[in-house]
């Protein structure tokens, strides 16, 4: 298993003056053992796939996955057409940057109410099927992760079971920290899906009095791995025993010391792997 991080966490270090350039930040990241980055579809528009690939190649790094996180205006035909067009553009950019995975993360539109849930699920189905059609023959896996908010119909064990059964060819990204945020046991979930897991996000959490993460009436801090209550080592043991050999992506969702927490997380992972 190799260790990666979200490009946004490395980019944060540049924007906050820790490094003068992305090149300098990637050099330091590589020195600490980061071999791959998880990238937003929007990053591929900011840097262009060719420029980002060139920057990463200099440090023997690569894009392991791209996540497509967009509000889906499913209420109108025009809204769905726009979502499909953005999805196809994302996949085209993934080919250019050389990534092998796309994670589709459909977001609720403004003013969503629970009565629209079935319509939202149909929109998700349409996007996932379109992603599978458009990636056919391109050596790009289409994945869905368990989301952290139970308002979304892909956050619980039952939800993930449903989608993996409903969409043949769909792969699974295991996000260990999103399960407790959704009130689900992270180890029980991993045991349910370990054989279908092709990608892993690792985040740790602790309950706090105030933060940028509020789920089920509880505030959480997304801190460095090993600093919270999420059972990281137990999960890694299960993944190893199941033969998982894909990337482990460190995810930090706090608003401060993001890069520093990333590096501490890598040190922790090395100590338990």
Describe the protein's architecture and organization.
The protein is of the alpha/beta class. The protein is built from 11 helices and 11 strands. The strands form 2 sheets. It has an 8-stranded parallel β-barrel with strand order 1-2-3-4-5-6-7-11, surrounded by 7 helices. Strands 8-10-9 form a 3-stranded antiparallel β-sheet, with no helix packed on it. α9 (186-193) runs parallel beside α10 (232-241). The longest helix has 21 residues, at 77-97. The model has no long low-confidence stretch (mean pLDDT 95).
Mean of pLDDT: 95
Low-confidence stretches: none
- Proportion of beta-strand residues: 15-25%
* Alpha-carbon Rg, integer: 18 Å
What oligomeric arrangement do these chains adopt?
single chain
- CATH class term: Alpha Beta
Overall body shape: globular
Q: Report how far apart the termini are.
A: 9 Å
Q: What is the count of helical runs?
A: 11
- CATH architecture assignment name: Alpha-Beta Barrel
Task: List the keywords.
alpha/beta; 8-stranded parallel beta barrel; 45% helix; 11 strands; 273 residues; 3-stranded antiparallel sheet; globular; TIM Barrel
């Amino acid at each position: 298993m190799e260790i990666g991080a979200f490009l946004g966490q490395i980019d944060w270090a540049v924007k906050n003056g820790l490094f003068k350039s992305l090149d300098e930040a990637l050099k330091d990241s590589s020195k600490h053992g980061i071999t791959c980055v998880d990238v937003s579809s929007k990053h591929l528009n900011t840097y262009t796939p060719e420029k980002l690939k060139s920057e990463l190649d200099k440090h023997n790094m690569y894009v392991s996955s791209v996540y497509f996180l967009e509000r889906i205006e499913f209420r109108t035909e025009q809204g769905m057409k726009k979502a499909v067009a953005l999805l196809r553009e994302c996949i085209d950019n993934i080919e250019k940057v050389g990534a092998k995975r796309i994670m589709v993360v459909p977001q609720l539109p403004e003013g969503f109410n629970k009565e629209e849930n079935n319509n939202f699920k149909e929109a998700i189905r349409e996007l996932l099927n379109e992603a599978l059609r458009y990636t056919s023959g391109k050596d790009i896996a289409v994945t869905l992760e368990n989301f952290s908010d139970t308002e979304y119909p892909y956050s619980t064990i039952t939800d993930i079971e449903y989608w993996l059964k409903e969409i043949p060819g769909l792969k699974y990204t295991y996000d260990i920290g999103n399960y407790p945020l959704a009130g689900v046991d992270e180890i029980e979930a991993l045991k349910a899906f370990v054989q279908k897991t092709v990608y892993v996000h690792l985040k740790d959490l602790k309950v706090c009095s105030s933060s940028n993460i509020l789920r089920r009436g509880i505030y959480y801090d997304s801190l460095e791995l090993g600093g919270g209550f999420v059972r990281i080592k137990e999960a890694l043991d299960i993944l190893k025993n199941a033969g998982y050999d894909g990337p482990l992506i460190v995810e930090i969702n706090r608003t401060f010391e993001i890069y520093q927490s990333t590096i501490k997380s890598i040190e922790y992972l090395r100590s338990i792997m």
